[in-house]
């Protein structure tokens, strides 16, 4: 790391603690040496008092905690679930950060604050909030630089175009991914405390794969180098399982959580799992001065908080009551603990819940695997299958209703508009073996159990498939025949699939067909997979200002209270301008909150 660690006994660098807190919001400037007389143990043993308490261990909360701890604040992260990482650990780990330092690596040299601002103004329309958008655009690139210089975070660029690519100001690459991470330094206990990726996003229990590895692994026997790379990955995995009880190679959102957790543990952040926060405590000046935590190993504990509480509980998409009010669909792939505790706690101390946005979540079509006597497994279909050549999606009338490869937010909005509560992804055997369909992974992974459970429906002909899923057979046959014709000509006259940079990005040029997004559906058996409109997060939450402070109905900050990530009303207000529009702002405002708490000026 470029900046020395703040651990005592080692040199204190530019970020070293220069203040100590003597009472709520009273700061006394002290030379660095005063802190040096305290040992780490003394700081930790300071009863139930912390400078900062962060509620939730996703990307937003852990970023705030990492920044606060790096500046020397005594920080506690409480996590409700048995695992750290929240929805973030399930995610692709992509962060949408315009004008970030990595864009030139993929040839983008013309991005700027002004360009991105113009784009957001157009995408958000009436929802555009200049103060918050400007803070996001100003601090996002700085967050990336600061995190890479001071923490374990490492990003990498991806040439994924913005999702409204025809709108002026769009860029061809603003999304950055988390670099894959060898989680061995987390140690056996912490590694096992990281939330597993969603079913279907790993193989053999916990072997994770970076997107860049997929072409190699799905063609392991295609060349000697593919074979060597694939088998060494499997051997490494087996060795990790012996050492740690699970795979230590972390990719995507798991790598993001692994890197942030490593930073937090290295900076002495106290991490409590199975410890839901339930209530904020205020003093007579309405300042937040404490929080009640219900620890699994011993009743409610009141924690005194000197500087502030950061609510980062990941929103409410799994709260049946709140979700029903704002989502026109039933299913969410977020973890079951994300039920709006942060929003509820904030409201109880005067935090303002604005009226809902036109859209209130990150949408994705979801397939459901109902296992006997077990929870329903939910697989969000972002890009792994429905965007690939040969995928066809039909409504219950057997007809297509849009471009299958469209960005997920827009695709589900269309389902809502057309009132389609169930659609079918249709493909043939070649497609299934090459790309997989949801939880049915590409060859050589077995799929029989999924057919047996009714998750994936198989039939020897399109006609019989139509009968099995109860859609009009003639219509489905006509649809498939038309798509086969489009694959040949390379033109989809109905919905223009394959014409955008986005469609091409997720297409497959290796088919050799004229349009990398269009392919054939001709080889029996044929498959159908039911898809439902759903979400992976709520994005509607408690009102915050540009400093991530929770505000009341008069837009006045509630002292000592911050909300970030999906607990706050997103700066994107439920729109999705590009890949990573949740994690990008979540980490940026986590970074902002960390600076505010530490009393460090933001540039
Ligand atoms: C498969 C998948 C892929 C995705 N890919 C992307 C992507 O690439 N880019 C992107 O921007 N978004 C993506 N998303 C969405 C994104 O993951 C989330 O919107 C984002 O991670 C939310 O971050 P967060 O910090 O707000 O909350 P979370 O990561 O959900 O963390 C919140 C945590 O708070 C805990 N919590 C809740 N209540 C309490 C309480 N009372 N006390 C203590 N803890 C509590 C929860 O248990 C949870 O662990 C994806 C989602 C999924 C499911």
TrEMBL record:
Question: Is the keyword Flavoprotein in the record?
Answer: yes
Instruction: Kindly list the biological process annotations in GO that this record carries.
Output: steroid metabolic process
Q: Lineage of the source organism?
A: Eukaryota, Fungi, Dikarya, Ascomycota, Pezizomycotina
Organism (species)? Capronia epimyces CBS 606.96
Keyword annotations of the record: FAD, Flavoprotein, Oxidoreductase
User: What's the protein called, per UniProt?
Assistant: FAD-dependent oxidoreductase 2 FAD-binding domain-containing protein
Q: Does the keyword Flavoprotein apply?
A: yes
Offer an example of a GO molecular function term for this protein: oxidoreductase activity
Question: Which cofactors are required for activity?
Answer: FAD
Among Pfam families, the record links this protein to: FAD_binding_2 (PF00890)
Give all residue intervals belonging to the FAD-dependent oxidoreductase 2 FAD-binding domain: 51-583
